[in-house]
């Protein structure tokens, strides 16, 4: 798997490889998805149409590997478009989206009702676009040879705060009588929100947990402590699988197949970007970047370790996006 740096980035590179997916939208509008020559011609026309401008986004660190990969490739197609994408977490990204600071907001969970209400108050109309599937991955240190397969109930017992100093032996008497060390995404993270919803059921997370919006810090923490446990997006596990051990949940390991099928439950989930409708209409560079993102999201998801949506879902998203122009 190609390594992508999960950082806030500004794309100003003058060259990058072009993906063969350019021109899908044009081909679809012409009523043909199987005519290779038409797609290639449309793709060439898109490459020849140079744009200038700026596009701003923010949001989920889980979605960041996909978007950064897209940004790097897009720089080759449109070198005069400046794309800046922050990684302040799903919640932090929505705060900037509501404040009118960004054209799009990446999210590892659906937008909340209160966030919708604030956008409505701000007069910002938006559209949700799905990008890929993820399997929220629970990981332990490779030296941990006991917690290889956990039930959902055990996850709850491990992670929910109950006022005690938890040891592994509290979960299973045959496990070591060593304190559990917790690493979790921060509270602005959509991954935290999703885990809260499906595992914590709204209860408090273990108060001794180290929280960070930087998933790479969580990786380092788990990799450095035999008694550590953490969770984050599947791509971050794949990127660091040489220093982490994946945990099965109710006997199911997250893989591309189990994530897409939903067998890896309840931790399979879609990943999104939310676009500002006015930006898609008034900012040609923003529209073009999001169109490029949808056209290439499946390939980029596969490249960085997530799972592509069915192709028809991307075509539906392109049709939706076209309607905003």
From TrEMBL:
Keywords from the named record: Cell membrane, Lipoprotein, Membrane, Palmitate, Phosphate transport, Signal, Transport
Function description: Involved in the system for phosphate transport across the cytoplasmic membrane.
Keyword Signal: yes
Record-stated family: Belongs to the PstS family.
Domain of life of the organism encoding this protein: Bacteria
Protein name (Swiss-Prot/TrEMBL): Phosphate-binding protein
Regions that span the bilayer: none
Native species: Lysinibacillus piscis
PANTHER family per the UniProt record, alphabetical: PERIPLASMIC PHOSPHATE BINDING COMPONENT OF PHOSPHATE ABC TRANSPORTER, PHOSPHATE-BINDING PROTEIN PSTS
All copies of domain PBP, residue ranges: 48-294
């Amino acid at each position: 798997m190609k390594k992508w740096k999960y950082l806030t980035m500004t794309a100003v590179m003058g060259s990058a490889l072009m993906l063969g997916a350019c021109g899908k939208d044009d081909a679809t509008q012409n009523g043909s998805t199987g005519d290779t020559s038409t797609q290639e011609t449309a793709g060439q026309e898109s490459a020849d149409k140079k744009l200038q401008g700026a596009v701003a986004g923010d949001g989920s660190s889980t979605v960041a590997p996909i978007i950064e990969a897209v940004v790097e490739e897009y720089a080759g197609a449109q070198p005069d478009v400046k794309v800046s994408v922050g990684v302040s977490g799903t919640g932090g990204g929505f705060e900037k989206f509501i404040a009118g600071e960004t054209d799009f907001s990446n999210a590892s969970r659906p937008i909340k009702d209160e966030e919708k209400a604030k956008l409505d108050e701000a007069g910002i109309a938006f559209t949700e676009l799905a990008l890929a599937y993820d399997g929220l991955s629970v990981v332990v240190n490779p030296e941990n040879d006991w917690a290889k397969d956990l039930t959902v109930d055990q996850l709850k017992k491990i992670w929910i705060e109950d006022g005690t100093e938890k040891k592994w032996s509290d979960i299973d008497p045959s496990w070591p009588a060593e304190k559990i060390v917790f690493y979790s995404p921060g509270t602005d993270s959509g991954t935290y929100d999703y885990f809260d919803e499906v595992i914590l059921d709204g209860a408090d997370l273990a108060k001794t947990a180290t929280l960070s919006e930087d998933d790479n810090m969580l990786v380092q923490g788990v990799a450095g402590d035999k008694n550590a446990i953490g969770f984050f997006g599947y791509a971050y596990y794949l990127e660091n699988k040489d220093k982490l051990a994946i945990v099965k949940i109710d006997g199911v390991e997250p893989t591309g197949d189990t994530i897409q099928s939903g067998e890896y439950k309840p931790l399979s989930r879609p990943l999104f970007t939310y676009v500002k409708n006015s930006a898609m209409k008034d900012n040609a560079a923003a529209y073009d970047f999001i169109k490029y993102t949808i056209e290439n999201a499946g390939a980029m998801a596969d490249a960085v370790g997530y799972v592509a949506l069915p192709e028809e879902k991307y075509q539906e998203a392109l049709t939706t996006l076209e309607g905003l122009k």
